[in-house]
Amino acid sequence: MIPFKNLPIRQFDGDKDVRGVETAIGGIKREAGREYPLVIGRQTYTNTRKLKTFDPSAPSRTLAVFQKATQEQAEEAINLARETFESWKVTSAEERSAILLRAAEVLRRRRDEAVATTVLEAGKNWIEADAELAEAVDFLEFYAREALRYAEKQPVVPFEGEEPELFYIPLGVGAVIPPWNFPLAILTGMTSAAIVTGNTVILKPASDTPLTGQLLFEVMIEAGLPEGVLTYLTGSGGEIGDFIVEHPQVRFIAFTGSMEVGLGINERAARLAPGQVWIKRVVAEMGGKDAIIIDEDADLDAATEGIIISAFGYQGQKCSACSRLIVHERIYEPLMERVVSGTEALKVGPPEDRTNYMGPVINQAALDKIMSYVELGHGEGRLLTGGTRIDIPGYFIEPTIFAEASPDGRLAQEEIFGPLLTVMKVRDFDEALAVANNTIYGLTGAVYSRNEGHLARAREVFHVGNLYFNHKCTGAMVGVHPFGGFNMSGTDSKAGGPDYLGLFLQAKSVSRKV
Ligand code: NAP
After folding, report:
1. 337: domain range?
2. For this structure, is 319 an active site residue?
3. Ligand 1 pocket, residue 478 CB under 6 Å
Protein backbone atom coordinates (compact mmCIF):
# COMPACT_ATOMS: atom_id res chain seq x y z
CA MET A 1 0.00 0.00 0.00
CA ILE A 2 1.34 3.44 -0.82
CA PRO A 3 2.17 5.57 2.26
CA PHE A 4 -0.59 7.82 3.61
CA LYS A 5 -0.79 11.33 2.17
CA ASN A 6 -3.33 14.05 3.00
CA LEU A 7 -5.86 14.84 0.27
CA PRO A 8 -5.26 18.39 -1.00
CA ILE A 9 -8.07 20.89 -0.36
CA ARG A 10 -9.62 22.58 -3.38
CA GLN A 11 -9.63 26.37 -3.65
CA PHE A 12 -12.36 26.45 -6.34
CA ASP A 13 -10.37 28.56 -8.72
CA GLY A 14 -11.16 26.29 -11.68
CA ASP A 15 -14.48 26.20 -13.53
CA LYS A 16 -14.85 22.42 -13.30
CA ASP A 17 -14.67 22.35 -9.50
CA VAL A 18 -17.12 25.25 -9.25
CA ARG A 19 -19.61 23.72 -11.66
CA GLY A 20 -19.49 20.38 -9.85
CA VAL A 21 -20.51 21.88 -6.52
CA GLU A 22 -23.08 24.19 -8.09
CA THR A 23 -24.73 21.21 -9.77
CA ALA A 24 -24.68 19.26 -6.49
CA ILE A 25 -26.26 22.19 -4.60
CA GLY A 26 -28.98 22.31 -7.23
CA GLY A 27 -29.56 18.58 -6.83
CA ILE A 28 -29.98 18.78 -3.05
CA LYS A 29 -32.38 21.69 -3.39
CA ARG A 30 -34.45 19.82 -5.94
CA GLU A 31 -34.65 16.85 -3.57
CA ALA A 32 -35.38 19.06 -0.55
CA GLY A 33 -37.83 17.47 1.83
CA ARG A 34 -36.93 13.90 0.88
CA GLU A 35 -37.68 11.47 3.67
CA TYR A 36 -35.19 8.83 4.80
CA PRO A 37 -36.47 5.77 6.64
CA LEU A 38 -34.68 4.35 9.63
CA VAL A 39 -32.78 1.23 8.60
CA ILE A 40 -31.96 -1.49 11.12
CA GLY A 41 -30.54 -4.50 9.34
CA ARG A 42 -33.14 -5.47 6.74
CA GLN A 43 -35.96 -3.61 8.47
CA THR A 44 -36.96 -0.11 7.47
CA TYR A 45 -39.14 2.09 9.64
CA THR A 46 -41.02 5.32 9.20
CA ASN A 47 -41.99 6.70 12.56
CA THR A 48 -44.59 9.22 13.52
CA ARG A 49 -41.95 11.42 15.17
CA LYS A 50 -39.69 13.03 12.58
CA LEU A 51 -36.34 14.78 12.67
CA LYS A 52 -36.25 17.58 10.12
CA THR A 53 -33.01 19.13 8.97
CA PHE A 54 -32.95 22.59 7.45
CA ASP A 55 -30.64 25.13 5.89
CA PRO A 56 -29.45 27.62 8.57
CA SER A 57 -29.16 30.26 5.82
CA ALA A 58 -32.84 29.78 4.98
CA PRO A 59 -34.49 28.06 7.96
CA SER A 60 -37.80 27.73 6.16
CA ARG A 61 -36.10 25.33 3.71
CA THR A 62 -36.35 21.77 5.01
CA LEU A 63 -33.52 19.82 3.45
CA ALA A 64 -34.54 16.33 4.51
CA VAL A 65 -36.71 14.42 6.92
CA PHE A 66 -35.41 11.62 9.13
CA GLN A 67 -37.04 9.42 11.74
CA LYS A 68 -36.72 9.94 15.46
CA ALA A 69 -35.74 6.47 16.60
CA THR A 70 -37.54 5.07 19.62
CA GLN A 71 -35.89 3.27 22.50
CA GLU A 72 -37.31 -0.04 21.19
CA GLN A 73 -35.59 0.59 17.87
CA ALA A 74 -32.35 1.49 19.67
CA GLU A 75 -32.65 -1.81 21.53
CA GLU A 76 -33.16 -3.66 18.24
CA ALA A 77 -30.10 -1.94 16.73
CA ILE A 78 -27.97 -2.87 19.73
CA ASN A 79 -29.10 -6.51 19.55
CA LEU A 80 -28.25 -6.61 15.87
CA ALA A 81 -24.84 -5.06 16.56
CA ARG A 82 -24.25 -7.63 19.30
CA GLU A 83 -25.03 -10.52 16.92
CA THR A 84 -23.02 -9.07 14.03
CA PHE A 85 -20.04 -8.55 16.32
CA GLU A 86 -19.53 -12.34 16.43
CA SER A 87 -18.69 -12.48 12.71
CA TRP A 88 -17.17 -9.02 12.32
CA LYS A 89 -14.65 -9.51 15.11
CA VAL A 90 -13.15 -12.50 13.26
CA THR A 91 -13.12 -10.81 9.87
CA SER A 92 -9.48 -10.18 8.95
CA ALA A 93 -7.89 -6.78 9.39
CA GLU A 94 -7.08 -6.83 5.67
CA GLU A 95 -10.74 -7.19 4.75
CA ARG A 96 -11.87 -4.48 7.12
CA SER A 97 -9.10 -2.16 5.99
CA ALA A 98 -10.04 -2.75 2.34
CA ILE A 99 -13.60 -1.59 3.08
CA LEU A 100 -12.27 1.70 4.45
CA LEU A 101 -10.12 2.18 1.36
CA ARG A 102 -13.11 1.54 -0.87
CA ALA A 103 -15.16 3.96 1.22
CA ALA A 104 -12.47 6.62 0.72
CA GLU A 105 -12.72 6.01 -3.02
CA VAL A 106 -16.51 6.37 -3.00
CA LEU A 107 -16.29 9.52 -0.91
CA ARG A 108 -13.77 11.04 -3.31
CA ARG A 109 -16.19 10.25 -6.12
CA ARG A 110 -19.08 11.88 -4.21
CA ARG A 111 -16.91 14.84 -3.23
CA ASP A 112 -19.06 17.58 -4.78
CA GLU A 113 -22.21 16.18 -3.22
CA ALA A 114 -20.51 16.00 0.19
CA VAL A 115 -19.31 19.60 -0.11
CA ALA A 116 -22.74 20.79 -1.23
CA THR A 117 -24.47 18.98 1.65
CA THR A 118 -22.16 20.52 4.25
CA VAL A 119 -22.56 23.96 2.68
CA LEU A 120 -26.34 23.74 2.86
CA GLU A 121 -26.88 21.80 6.07
CA ALA A 122 -24.03 23.05 8.27
CA GLY A 123 -23.53 26.51 6.72
CA LYS A 124 -19.85 26.03 5.82
CA ASN A 125 -18.18 27.98 3.06
CA TRP A 126 -17.01 25.91 0.10
CA ILE A 127 -13.36 25.73 1.08
CA GLU A 128 -14.17 24.77 4.68
CA ALA A 129 -16.60 22.15 3.37
CA ASP A 130 -13.98 20.75 1.02
CA ALA A 131 -11.45 20.69 3.87
CA GLU A 132 -13.95 18.67 5.85
CA LEU A 133 -14.42 16.21 2.99
CA ALA A 134 -10.65 15.89 2.67
CA GLU A 135 -10.35 15.22 6.40
CA ALA A 136 -13.00 12.48 6.21
CA VAL A 137 -11.17 10.81 3.31
CA ASP A 138 -7.90 11.16 5.23
CA PHE A 139 -9.37 9.43 8.29
CA LEU A 140 -10.48 6.48 6.15
CA GLU A 141 -7.12 6.20 4.41
CA PHE A 142 -5.12 6.70 7.61
CA TYR A 143 -7.06 4.24 9.78
CA ALA A 144 -7.10 1.65 6.97
CA ARG A 145 -3.31 1.63 7.21
CA GLU A 146 -3.22 1.86 11.00
CA ALA A 147 -5.48 -1.19 11.33
CA LEU A 148 -2.93 -3.28 9.46
CA ARG A 149 -0.16 -2.03 11.74
CA TYR A 150 -2.17 -2.90 14.87
CA ALA A 151 -2.83 -6.37 13.41
CA GLU A 152 0.89 -7.10 13.11
CA LYS A 153 2.77 -9.22 15.61
CA GLN A 154 3.36 -6.98 18.63
CA PRO A 155 6.77 -6.85 20.30
CA VAL A 156 7.21 -8.67 23.65
CA VAL A 157 10.37 -9.42 25.62
CA PRO A 158 11.65 -12.94 24.82
CA PHE A 159 11.73 -15.32 27.80
CA GLU A 160 13.49 -18.64 27.84
CA GLY A 161 11.19 -21.65 27.90
CA GLU A 162 8.17 -19.67 26.71
CA GLU A 163 6.63 -18.38 23.49
CA PRO A 164 4.88 -15.20 24.52
CA GLU A 165 2.73 -13.13 22.15
CA LEU A 166 0.57 -10.05 22.37
CA PHE A 167 -2.23 -9.13 20.00
CA TYR A 168 -5.20 -6.78 19.84
CA ILE A 169 -8.86 -7.74 19.80
CA PRO A 170 -11.93 -5.48 19.46
CA LEU A 171 -14.11 -4.37 22.36
CA GLY A 172 -17.67 -5.08 21.19
CA VAL A 173 -20.65 -2.85 20.45
CA GLY A 174 -19.86 0.85 20.50
CA ALA A 175 -21.91 4.04 20.45
CA VAL A 176 -20.52 6.80 18.26
CA ILE A 177 -21.94 10.23 19.08
CA PRO A 178 -20.56 13.10 16.96
CA PRO A 179 -21.26 16.87 16.97
CA TRP A 180 -22.83 18.92 14.16
CA ASN A 181 -19.84 21.17 13.54
CA PHE A 182 -17.79 18.57 11.64
CA PRO A 183 -20.77 16.50 10.54
CA LEU A 184 -18.76 14.48 8.05
CA ALA A 185 -15.14 14.42 9.22
CA ILE A 186 -15.52 13.72 12.94
CA LEU A 187 -18.39 11.33 12.35
CA THR A 188 -16.32 9.46 9.76
CA GLY A 189 -13.22 9.43 11.93
CA MET A 190 -14.84 8.00 15.04
CA THR A 191 -17.01 5.53 13.10
CA SER A 192 -14.31 4.20 10.82
CA ALA A 193 -11.81 3.78 13.68
CA ALA A 194 -14.34 1.75 15.66
CA ILE A 195 -15.31 -0.39 12.67
CA VAL A 196 -11.89 -1.10 11.21
CA THR A 197 -10.74 -2.47 14.56
CA GLY A 198 -13.56 -5.07 14.51
CA ASN A 199 -16.25 -3.42 16.60
CA THR A 200 -19.86 -2.93 15.58
CA VAL A 201 -21.35 0.53 15.85
CA ILE A 202 -24.52 2.41 16.62
CA LEU A 203 -23.96 5.84 15.09
CA LYS A 204 -26.24 8.52 16.44
CA PRO A 205 -25.62 11.69 14.42
CA ALA A 206 -26.17 15.21 15.74
CA SER A 207 -29.77 16.30 15.21
CA ASP A 208 -28.72 19.41 13.26
CA THR A 209 -26.84 17.52 10.54
CA PRO A 210 -28.29 14.05 9.81
CA LEU A 211 -28.17 14.52 6.03
CA THR A 212 -24.38 14.86 5.98
CA GLY A 213 -24.06 11.78 8.20
CA GLN A 214 -26.40 9.83 5.93
CA LEU A 215 -23.82 10.24 3.18
CA LEU A 216 -21.20 8.36 5.20
CA PHE A 217 -23.69 5.60 5.92
CA GLU A 218 -24.43 5.21 2.19
CA VAL A 219 -20.73 5.33 1.37
CA MET A 220 -19.98 2.54 3.83
CA ILE A 221 -22.73 0.34 2.42
CA GLU A 222 -21.50 0.95 -1.13
CA ALA A 223 -17.98 0.07 0.02
CA GLY A 224 -19.25 -3.35 1.07
CA LEU A 225 -19.67 -3.03 4.82
CA PRO A 226 -21.71 -6.07 5.94
CA GLU A 227 -25.21 -5.47 7.22
CA GLY A 228 -25.45 -4.85 10.95
CA VAL A 229 -21.87 -3.62 11.43
CA LEU A 230 -23.10 -0.02 11.33
CA THR A 231 -26.57 1.21 12.21
CA TYR A 232 -27.35 4.84 11.50
CA LEU A 233 -29.75 5.71 14.27
CA THR A 234 -31.16 9.20 13.96
CA GLY A 235 -32.89 10.72 16.97
CA SER A 236 -32.56 12.98 19.95
CA GLY A 237 -29.44 12.84 22.10
CA GLY A 238 -31.45 13.20 25.28
CA GLU A 239 -33.83 10.37 24.36
CA ILE A 240 -31.98 7.59 22.55
CA GLY A 241 -28.48 8.97 23.31
CA ASP A 242 -28.94 8.37 27.02
CA PHE A 243 -30.53 5.00 26.37
CA ILE A 244 -27.62 3.76 24.26
CA VAL A 245 -25.00 5.10 26.65
CA GLU A 246 -26.60 3.30 29.59
CA HIS A 247 -27.30 0.05 27.77
CA PRO A 248 -25.53 -2.98 29.35
CA GLN A 249 -24.56 -4.42 25.94
CA VAL A 250 -22.73 -1.25 24.91
CA ARG A 251 -19.01 -1.68 25.59
CA PHE A 252 -17.67 1.77 24.65
CA ILE A 253 -18.76 5.27 23.74
CA ALA A 254 -16.87 7.52 21.33
CA PHE A 255 -18.22 11.01 21.86
CA THR A 256 -17.29 14.42 20.51
CA GLY A 257 -19.29 17.43 21.61
CA SER A 258 -19.76 19.86 24.47
CA MET A 259 -18.21 19.51 27.90
CA GLU A 260 -21.62 19.40 29.58
CA VAL A 261 -22.89 16.49 27.49
CA GLY A 262 -19.52 14.72 27.57
CA LEU A 263 -19.33 14.83 31.35
CA GLY A 264 -22.90 13.56 31.60
CA ILE A 265 -22.09 10.64 29.29
CA ASN A 266 -18.96 9.84 31.27
CA GLU A 267 -20.98 9.77 34.48
CA ARG A 268 -23.81 7.64 33.11
CA ALA A 269 -21.41 5.24 31.42
CA ALA A 270 -19.67 4.68 34.75
CA ARG A 271 -22.85 3.37 36.37
CA LEU A 272 -23.18 -0.38 36.19
CA ALA A 273 -26.38 -1.51 34.47
CA PRO A 274 -27.97 -4.84 35.46
CA GLY A 275 -26.35 -7.61 33.42
CA GLN A 276 -23.32 -5.52 32.47
CA VAL A 277 -19.98 -7.35 32.78
CA TRP A 278 -17.46 -4.65 31.86
CA ILE A 279 -16.35 -1.15 32.67
CA LYS A 280 -17.42 0.96 29.70
CA ARG A 281 -14.70 2.81 27.94
CA VAL A 282 -15.44 6.46 27.18
CA VAL A 283 -13.54 8.46 24.61
CA ALA A 284 -14.81 12.01 25.06
CA GLU A 285 -13.51 14.97 23.10
CA MET A 286 -15.12 18.17 24.34
CA GLY A 287 -15.01 21.96 24.22
CA GLY A 288 -12.31 24.58 24.07
CA LYS A 289 -11.49 28.17 24.88
CA ASP A 290 -8.49 28.43 22.66
CA ALA A 291 -5.96 31.26 22.78
CA ILE A 292 -3.47 32.80 20.41
CA ILE A 293 -0.56 34.73 21.96
CA ILE A 294 1.04 37.52 19.94
CA ASP A 295 4.53 38.33 21.17
CA GLU A 296 6.16 41.75 20.86
CA ASP A 297 8.39 40.69 17.92
CA ALA A 298 5.76 38.72 15.96
CA ASP A 299 5.24 39.09 12.21
CA LEU A 300 2.05 41.14 12.48
CA ASP A 301 0.76 40.38 8.99
CA ALA A 302 1.09 36.62 9.45
CA ALA A 303 -0.41 36.91 12.93
CA THR A 304 -3.38 38.94 11.66
CA GLU A 305 -4.17 36.36 9.01
CA GLY A 306 -3.88 33.49 11.52
CA ILE A 307 -6.08 35.27 14.07
CA ILE A 308 -8.87 36.08 11.62
CA ILE A 309 -9.00 32.61 10.10
CA SER A 310 -8.86 30.93 13.54
CA ALA A 311 -11.48 33.20 15.12
CA PHE A 312 -13.99 33.57 12.29
CA GLY A 313 -13.49 30.54 10.01
CA TYR A 314 -16.77 28.60 10.07
CA GLN A 315 -18.21 31.43 12.19
CA GLY A 316 -16.00 30.48 15.15
CA GLN A 317 -17.90 27.22 15.52
CA LYS A 318 -14.86 24.99 15.85
CA CYS A 319 -13.63 23.43 19.06
CA SER A 320 -10.22 24.71 17.98
CA ALA A 321 -11.40 28.26 17.16
CA CYS A 322 -9.45 31.16 18.62
CA SER A 323 -11.80 32.76 21.12
CA ARG A 324 -9.11 34.52 23.18
CA LEU A 325 -6.44 36.77 21.75
CA ILE A 326 -3.58 37.63 24.11
CA VAL A 327 -1.45 40.52 22.88
CA HIS A 328 1.81 42.03 24.10
CA GLU A 329 1.17 45.67 24.97
CA ARG A 330 4.05 46.93 22.77
CA ILE A 331 2.40 45.82 19.52
CA TYR A 332 -1.20 46.02 20.71
CA GLU A 333 -2.23 49.12 18.72
CA PRO A 334 -0.77 48.20 15.30
CA LEU A 335 -1.94 44.60 15.60
CA MET A 336 -5.50 45.46 16.59
CA GLU A 337 -5.76 48.00 13.82
CA ARG A 338 -4.90 45.25 11.31
CA VAL A 339 -7.17 42.65 12.97
CA VAL A 340 -10.18 44.97 13.11
CA SER A 341 -9.80 46.12 9.53
CA GLY A 342 -9.29 42.52 8.31
CA THR A 343 -12.36 41.41 10.26
CA GLU A 344 -14.51 44.18 8.86
CA ALA A 345 -13.54 43.10 5.36
CA LEU A 346 -14.97 39.59 5.84
CA LYS A 347 -17.97 38.89 3.66
CA VAL A 348 -20.91 37.37 5.53
CA GLY A 349 -23.89 35.74 3.83
CA PRO A 350 -25.33 32.44 2.60
CA PRO A 351 -22.39 30.13 1.85
CA GLU A 352 -24.18 28.85 -1.21
CA ASP A 353 -22.60 31.95 -2.76
CA ARG A 354 -18.97 30.90 -2.68
CA THR A 355 -17.72 34.47 -2.36
CA ASN A 356 -19.12 34.62 1.19
CA TYR A 357 -16.45 33.79 3.76
CA MET A 358 -18.73 33.53 6.79
CA GLY A 359 -22.10 31.79 6.80
CA PRO A 360 -24.82 31.47 9.44
CA VAL A 361 -24.48 29.96 12.89
CA ILE A 362 -26.12 26.59 13.17
CA ASN A 363 -29.55 27.32 14.68
CA GLN A 364 -31.73 29.71 16.64
CA ALA A 365 -30.48 28.47 20.02
CA ALA A 366 -26.86 29.09 18.97
CA LEU A 367 -27.77 32.55 17.72
CA ASP A 368 -29.53 33.41 21.00
CA LYS A 369 -26.65 32.10 23.07
CA ILE A 370 -24.03 34.05 21.10
CA MET A 371 -26.10 37.25 21.23
CA SER A 372 -26.42 36.87 25.01
CA TYR A 373 -22.62 36.86 25.20
CA VAL A 374 -22.51 39.96 23.01
CA GLU A 375 -24.74 41.65 25.57
CA LEU A 376 -22.49 40.45 28.35
CA GLY A 377 -19.49 41.72 26.39
CA HIS A 378 -20.72 45.31 26.62
CA GLY A 379 -20.41 45.03 30.39
CA GLU A 380 -17.15 43.05 30.49
CA GLY A 381 -15.19 44.67 27.65
CA ARG A 382 -15.15 47.30 24.92
CA LEU A 383 -16.67 46.50 21.53
CA LEU A 384 -14.13 46.98 18.73
CA THR A 385 -16.26 45.74 15.86
CA GLY A 386 -19.42 43.76 15.04
CA GLY A 387 -21.94 42.91 17.73
CA THR A 388 -25.13 42.80 15.70
CA ARG A 389 -27.29 40.22 14.08
CA ILE A 390 -27.44 40.70 10.33
CA ASP A 391 -30.95 41.45 9.20
CA ILE A 392 -31.45 38.80 6.54
CA PRO A 393 -33.20 35.42 6.80
CA GLY A 394 -31.02 32.86 8.54
CA TYR A 395 -28.80 32.99 11.59
CA PHE A 396 -26.17 35.53 10.62
CA ILE A 397 -24.05 37.46 13.11
CA GLU A 398 -21.32 39.97 12.37
CA PRO A 399 -17.81 38.89 13.34
CA THR A 400 -17.40 40.49 16.73
CA ILE A 401 -14.40 41.58 18.79
CA PHE A 402 -14.39 42.74 22.40
CA ALA A 403 -11.20 44.19 23.92
CA GLU A 404 -10.05 45.05 27.42
CA ALA A 405 -11.77 42.04 28.90
CA SER A 406 -10.71 40.54 32.19
CA PRO A 407 -9.03 37.12 31.90
CA ASP A 408 -11.28 35.95 34.73
CA GLY A 409 -14.57 37.23 33.25
CA ARG A 410 -17.16 35.00 31.62
CA LEU A 411 -16.29 36.23 28.14
CA ALA A 412 -12.74 34.95 28.59
CA GLN A 413 -13.69 31.77 30.43
CA GLU A 414 -16.78 30.22 28.83
CA GLU A 415 -17.06 28.49 25.47
CA ILE A 416 -19.30 30.72 23.32
CA PHE A 417 -18.93 28.78 20.07
CA GLY A 418 -19.56 31.61 17.65
CA PRO A 419 -17.86 34.52 15.90
CA LEU A 420 -16.88 36.36 19.06
CA LEU A 421 -13.24 37.10 19.89
CA THR A 422 -12.12 38.40 23.28
CA VAL A 423 -8.86 40.35 23.40
CA MET A 424 -6.59 40.77 26.40
CA LYS A 425 -3.49 42.96 26.65
CA VAL A 426 -0.47 41.69 28.63
CA ARG A 427 2.80 43.24 29.83
CA ASP A 428 5.15 40.37 29.00
CA PHE A 429 5.38 36.81 27.73
CA ASP A 430 5.10 35.18 31.15
CA GLU A 431 1.83 36.98 31.76
CA ALA A 432 0.66 35.88 28.30
CA LEU A 433 1.27 32.23 29.15
CA ALA A 434 -0.43 32.60 32.54
CA VAL A 435 -3.52 34.11 30.88
CA ALA A 436 -3.49 31.44 28.16
CA ASN A 437 -3.49 28.65 30.75
CA ASN A 438 -6.16 30.31 32.90
CA THR A 439 -9.22 28.27 31.83
CA ILE A 440 -10.60 24.82 32.56
CA TYR A 441 -9.96 23.80 28.93
CA GLY A 442 -6.78 22.82 27.09
CA LEU A 443 -7.48 22.06 23.46
CA THR A 444 -5.54 24.21 20.98
CA GLY A 445 -3.30 27.25 21.21
CA ALA A 446 -0.89 29.23 19.08
CA VAL A 447 2.03 31.58 19.61
CA TYR A 448 3.29 34.10 17.08
CA SER A 449 6.85 35.04 18.04
CA ARG A 450 10.39 35.23 16.63
CA ASN A 451 11.91 34.69 20.06
CA GLU A 452 13.27 31.13 20.21
CA GLY A 453 13.48 31.26 24.01
CA HIS A 454 9.81 32.22 24.24
CA LEU A 455 8.75 29.47 21.84
CA ALA A 456 10.75 26.93 23.84
CA ARG A 457 9.07 28.13 27.01
CA ALA A 458 5.60 27.95 25.43
CA ARG A 459 6.37 24.42 24.20
CA GLU A 460 6.89 23.40 27.78
CA VAL A 461 4.30 25.49 29.62
CA PHE A 462 1.32 26.24 27.30
CA HIS A 463 -0.94 23.38 28.44
CA VAL A 464 -2.93 22.37 25.38
CA GLY A 465 -3.19 19.18 23.37
CA ASN A 466 -2.45 20.94 20.07
CA LEU A 467 0.01 23.82 20.07
CA TYR A 468 1.08 25.73 16.96
CA PHE A 469 3.90 28.22 16.42
CA ASN A 470 3.53 31.04 13.89
CA HIS A 471 0.51 29.11 12.59
CA LYS A 472 -3.27 29.40 13.06
CA CYS A 473 -4.76 27.31 15.87
CA THR A 474 -7.35 25.55 13.68
CA GLY A 475 -7.15 23.09 10.80
CA ALA A 476 -5.44 20.05 12.34
CA MET A 477 -4.52 17.59 9.60
CA VAL A 478 -4.89 13.84 9.94
CA GLY A 479 -1.54 12.23 10.68
CA VAL A 480 0.26 15.58 10.78
CA HIS A 481 -1.40 17.04 13.88
CA PRO A 482 -2.98 14.20 15.92
CA PHE A 483 -5.87 15.93 17.64
CA GLY A 484 -7.22 15.94 21.20
CA GLY A 485 -7.27 18.16 24.26
CA PHE A 486 -6.26 18.28 27.90
CA ASN A 487 -8.27 19.04 31.03
CA MET A 488 -11.97 19.73 30.34
CA SER A 489 -11.31 19.54 26.60
CA GLY A 490 -11.44 15.78 26.85
CA THR A 491 -9.62 12.50 27.08
CA ASP A 492 -6.86 13.58 24.69
CA SER A 493 -7.62 10.78 22.26
CA LYS A 494 -5.40 12.20 19.52
CA ALA A 495 -7.65 11.41 16.58
CA GLY A 496 -5.65 10.90 13.40
CA GLY A 497 -2.62 9.78 15.39
CA PRO A 498 -0.77 6.52 15.98
CA ASP A 499 -2.42 5.80 19.35
CA TYR A 500 -6.02 6.33 18.27
CA LEU A 501 -7.03 2.85 17.17
CA GLY A 502 -5.76 1.49 20.48
CA LEU A 503 -8.75 3.17 22.12
CA PHE A 504 -11.06 0.76 20.30
CA LEU A 505 -9.05 -2.35 21.11
CA GLN A 506 -7.95 -4.46 24.05
CA ALA A 507 -4.65 -6.34 24.15
CA LYS A 508 -4.49 -10.06 24.81
CA SER A 509 -1.32 -11.73 26.05
CA VAL A 510 -0.90 -15.45 25.37
CA SER A 511 2.15 -17.47 26.35
CA ARG A 512 2.96 -21.11 25.67
CA LYS A 513 5.50 -23.08 27.66
CA VAL A 514 7.98 -24.86 25.40
P1 NAP B 1 -23.44 18.58 22.03
O2 NAP B 1 -24.64 19.39 22.23
O3 NAP B 1 -22.68 18.13 23.21
O4 NAP B 1 -23.89 17.32 21.14
C5 NAP B 1 -22.96 16.37 20.67
C6 NAP B 1 -23.68 15.07 20.39
O7 NAP B 1 -24.17 14.54 21.64
C8 NAP B 1 -24.88 15.21 19.49
O9 NAP B 1 -24.95 14.09 18.64
C10 NAP B 1 -26.03 15.21 20.47
O11 NAP B 1 -27.25 14.77 19.92
C12 NAP B 1 -25.53 14.21 21.48
N13 NAP B 1 -26.19 14.28 22.78
C14 NAP B 1 -26.79 15.34 23.37
N15 NAP B 1 -27.26 15.00 24.57
C16 NAP B 1 -26.96 13.70 24.76
C17 NAP B 1 -27.17 12.78 25.81
N18 NAP B 1 -27.80 13.14 26.92
N19 NAP B 1 -26.72 11.51 25.67
C20 NAP B 1 -26.07 11.13 24.56
N21 NAP B 1 -25.84 11.97 23.51
C22 NAP B 1 -26.26 13.23 23.62
O23 NAP B 1 -22.36 19.33 21.10
P24 NAP B 1 -22.61 20.05 19.72
O25 NAP B 1 -23.37 21.30 19.97
O26 NAP B 1 -23.13 19.07 18.73
O27 NAP B 1 -21.13 20.38 19.26
C28 NAP B 1 -20.43 21.50 19.69
C29 NAP B 1 -19.50 21.14 20.82
O30 NAP B 1 -18.60 20.12 20.39
C31 NAP B 1 -18.60 22.29 21.25
O32 NAP B 1 -18.52 22.30 22.64
C33 NAP B 1 -17.25 21.94 20.63
O34 NAP B 1 -16.15 22.50 21.29
C35 NAP B 1 -17.26 20.46 20.73
N36 NAP B 1 -16.35 19.84 19.78
C37 NAP B 1 -15.20 19.28 20.25
C38 NAP B 1 -14.29 18.73 19.38
C39 NAP B 1 -13.02 18.11 19.88
O40 NAP B 1 -12.36 17.39 19.12
N41 NAP B 1 -12.63 18.35 21.12
C42 NAP B 1 -14.55 18.73 18.02
C43 NAP B 1 -15.75 19.30 17.56
C44 NAP B 1 -16.64 19.85 18.46
P45 NAP B 1 -28.41 15.84 19.53
O46 NAP B 1 -27.84 16.66 18.45
O47 NAP B 1 -29.52 14.97 19.12
O48 NAP B 1 -28.68 16.63 20.77
Report:
1. 290-477
2. yes
3. no
